[in-house]
Design a protein that fits this description.
Radius of gyration: 22 Å
Structural class: mainly beta
Largest sheet: 4 strands, mixed
Strand order of the largest sheet: 1-2-3-30
Length: 343
């Protein structure tokens, strides 16, 4: 019969106190407390943080768990859904007001980090926009316009090497059908890139311009993913959950990514290793929207999610789409010592 020592290569020792630096997989019996303990991996967790102010639905956001910007959006009231240009900044513990965005929109995209970011597109009144702006950590600046009007869109990459894919806009439908075209930004101009094989709007994006992964989206809703190598698209793994809205959050790289949130009311997060998706952790509140990290810095050990439109009843109530201002912070699974219980 296999034993712990033959499997792990370590002997269960008796100790009067827990070791200060146990190795992964080590097990011991604490004679002082009379408990059997093991040093292994804990579970990934989401914890509540201070709720975000301002527009609570369909804004642009990017950054990290300690430095994040959310701007534009709308408040979920009935059509024509007043468009916002308010900005709020997160420092890891609290939100403060920032300068207003140069334009008002809902469903815009974003890419970059807190000190160097892009915001682009969105719906600005009757239709999709091709507007693009920059953020340097303290103020907004103007950028060249996108080549295509698009809303219900995300982005990924840096402020000098970004990509946005799909969305809703005039090029693929009338009016504003799901799109296949993608375009990249090099710090000075937007260029058309290879079209993605499937037209979609919404979904999530993560990675770099030359190594991106795109998931979900709808028209119709699907569980497909696609990977981009800087010149062509190929099919990636299949997600465990279909995520429809543009507010699906993505963090990390094309081979170490985390996706979370999205509609309708999805609370399950998934990780991606460049080949397959795995169930990761469950958020505290099911999300029909909200934003999280949009960057290429590999932040799959920590992430942030804020804003949380609830799934409305059907038909939509006269008061509009209800929402909460939930903020949640993610911590990846990490080595931890736990007590072994025997029942």
């Amino acid at each position: 019969m296999a034993t712990y020592r033959s499997i792990v290569g370590l002997k269960i020792k008796k100790r009067s106190s827990d070791p200060s630096n146990p190795v992964l997989g080590e097990m011991w019996y604490n004679t002082t407390t009379g408990t059997l303990k093991v040093h292994g991996f804990g579970s990934a967790t989401w914890t509540s943080a201070t709720g975000s102010p301002g527009s609570q639905m369909t804004w642009a956001g990017c950054g990290t768990q300690s430095a994040y910007i959310k701007t534009m959006g709308e408040d979920g009231t009935p059509a024509p859904n007043p468009l916002g240009n308010d900005t709020h900044l997160w420092n890891g513990s609290s939100w403060t007001s920032g300068p207003n965005s140069p334009y008002s929109a809902r469903d815009p995209g974003a890419a970059g980090v807190y000190t160097a970011a892009l915001m682009f597109g969105g719906q600005g009144g009757p239709g999709a926009l091709n507007t693009s702006i920059s953020w340097d950590g303290s103020s907004f600046g103007s950028n060249p316009n996108l080549n295509h009007q698009r809303r219900t869109v995300n982005g990924t990459g840096t402020s000098t090497s970004a990509i946005t894919v799909g969305g809703a806009g005039p090029p693929s439908g009338s009016p504003e059908g799901a799109m296949t075209n993608s375009e990249s930004y090099n710090g000075s101009s937007w260029s058309n890139e290879t079209a993605i094989p499937t037209a979609f709007r919404g979904g999530g994006q993560a990675g770099e311009e030359s190594a991106a992964v795109v998931i979900g989206g709808y028209s119709p809703a699907h569980t497909s993913s696609f990977e981009y190598d800087g010149s062509s698209w190929s099919s990636g793994g299949t997600t465990n959950t279909a995520r429809q809205t543009s507010m699906t959050a993505g963090a990390g790289t094309g081979t170490a990514a985390l996706f979370y949130g999205g509609g309708p009311s999805v609370s399950q997060a998934e990780s991606y290793d460049g080949t397959s998706f795995a169930i990761d952790s469950t958020m505290g509140t099911g999300s029909g929207g909200g934003r999280g990290n949009q960057n290429t810095q590999g932040y799959t050990t920590t992430a942030i999610f804020t804003g949380n439109p609830k799934s409305p009843p059907s038909p939509s109530p006269a008061g509009g789409y209800p929402y909460t201002n939930t903020t949640e912070e993610y911590s990846a699974a990490a080595a931890a010592t736990t007590t072994v219980s025997v029942s």
